[in-house]
Amino acid sequence: MKKADFALIAILFVGIIGLFLYLNDFDKYVDYYVEVRYDGEVVDKYLLDDNLEFTKTYQYSGTNTVEISNGTVQIIDADCPDLDCLIAKITKNSINPVIICAPNRLVVKIIGGKVLVDGVV
């Protein structure tokens, strides 16, 4: 083999390794959180892995009881007039992991999970 053959093999090897690294997305995983917002402001944040139940009472709107258990989140009690928020149950695999109680101005959503890395600095 000539020196040019070794150089060609080395260039192809480096190119294949580079293509492999480019096509594989080396994702960074973070924990899932349950974010509780009232009037657009984040008021609480809990780990989705926590198993707990908490009640939020707000001065002008009302009361909601949220349950986090086994990776699911749901509002189990509310004093709003329509009670639509009691129907929803969300998990980290939900298409739109958000529960909204509009009369009480409460938003509960799951955030976090897989975060794509744009590049290495």
Task: Explain what you see.
The structure is a single chain. The protein is of the alpha+beta class and 121 residues long. It has one domain (28-115): Sandwich (mini-chromosome maintenance (MCM) complex, domain 2), CATH 2.60.320. The protein has 1 helix and 8 strands. The chain has one helix at residues 3-23; strands at residues 28-38, 41-47, 52-57, 63-69, 72-78, 89-91, 98-101, 106-115. It has a 4-stranded antiparallel sheet with strand order 2-1-8-7, with no helix packed on it. It is rod-shaped.
Shape: rod-shaped
The named CATH superfamily: N-utilization substance G protein NusG, insert domain
Q: Which regions have little confidence, pLDDT < 50, spanning 5+ residues? A: none
Q: Class, according to the CATH hierarchy?
A: Mainly Beta
Order of helices and strands: HEEEEEEEE
Instruction: State the helical fraction.
Output: 10-25%
Question: What gyration radius follows from the Cα positions, in whole Å?
Answer: 24 Å
Q: Give the quaternary arrangement of the chains.
A: single chain
The profile of the biggest β sheet is: 4 strands, antiparallel
Distance between the termini: 39 Å
Number of helix segments?
1
Annotated CATH architecture: Sandwich
Q: Determine the structural class based on helices, strands and strand pairing.
A: alpha+beta
Proportion of strand residues: over 45%
Strand order of the largest sheet: 2-1-8-7
Mean pLDDT: 83
Number of strands: 8
Topology of this protein?
Elements: H1 3-23, E1 28-38, E2 41-47, E3 52-57, E4 63-69, E5 72-78, E6 89-91, E7 98-101, E8 106-115
